Amino acid sequence: MRTRIKVCGIASADEARLAVAAGVDALGFNCVGPSSPRHVADPTVAAITTLTPPPVATFLLTVERTAEAIAAHVRRTRPSTVQILWNIDPAESARLAEIEPDLRRVQVVHVESRAALEMIQAYSPYVHAFLLDSGSPNAATPELGGTGRPHDWAISAEFVDASPLPVFLAGGLTPANVGAAIRQVRPFGVDLSSGVRTAGQLDPVKLADFALAVRKADDALNPA
């Protein structure tokens, strides 16, 4: 099985073209507010998603917490997939599936302890995939991702084994550690932002190194 690559924090059409040319499978857009250094405005996202060629997926990262608000955000930006950063009420997740049945829905789970495993049963009926990250949504200053630090991959591996849905792995991934992450966790896909950037800009060399590390890990796990 080939591990998919998602690059998050895409902030311009030029970055999107660079990532697509590098062969990534998905682009992520941080529409989480001006406090985020990689925040991108909704009209910019809409322009990029319209131009992104298939089969590259486009992920809208949203901090909205209700089905109606999430759906409205999706309609403004036109992605193929929504990535829900908060642990929203499962009833809202169910409602979103009703009102946007054609939208791919990914629930973020922040791996702070084995309690993360409880999210599988709560959300599996209503989403298409999970994304494991290293945030702390309940901290005094909530972190919803983009921390640049790994979490406990042993818990992530347990989550992947237990999940009936595909699972993306995020959190502090780089060309240097992604091979070890894939070997231990066996995720459906890997997701990163800062690990392929230099001075905040998408770095084609780091991106190529990351893609090569992923391919090498895949080849080791799936020898011909």
Judging by the overall fold, what is the CATH architecture?
Alpha-Beta Barrel
How is the CATH topology named?
A: TIM Barrel
Task: Tell me about the largest β-sheet.
Answer: 8 strands, parallel, barrel
Mean pLDDT, rounded to whole units? 93
Low-confidence stretches: none
**What is the share of helical residues?**
25-40%
Distance between the termini: 12 Å
Strand order of the largest sheet: 1-2-3-4-5-6-7-8
Give the CA-based shape: globular
Structural category is: alpha/beta
Oligomer: single chain
The domain count comes to 1
Task: Please state the CA-atom Rg, rounded to the nearest Å.
Answer: 16 Å
The CATH C-level class name? Alpha Beta
SSE pattern, N- to C-terminal: EHEHEHEHEHEHEHEEEH
Number of H/I helices: 8
General description of the model:
There is one protein chain. With 224 residues, the chain is an alpha/beta fold. It has a single domain, classed as Aldolase class I (TIM Barrel, Alpha-Beta Barrel), CATH 3.20.20.70. The chain is 37% helix and 19% strand. Strands 1-2-3-4-5-6-7-8 form an 8-stranded parallel β-barrel, surrounded by 5 helices. Helix 3 packs across helix 4 (90-99) and helix 7 (178-185) packs parallel to helix 8 (204-221). The longest helix is centred in the last third of the chain and has 18 residues, at 204-221.
TL;DR?
It is built from eight helices and ten strands. The protein has 224 residues and is α/β, with parallel strands linked by helices.
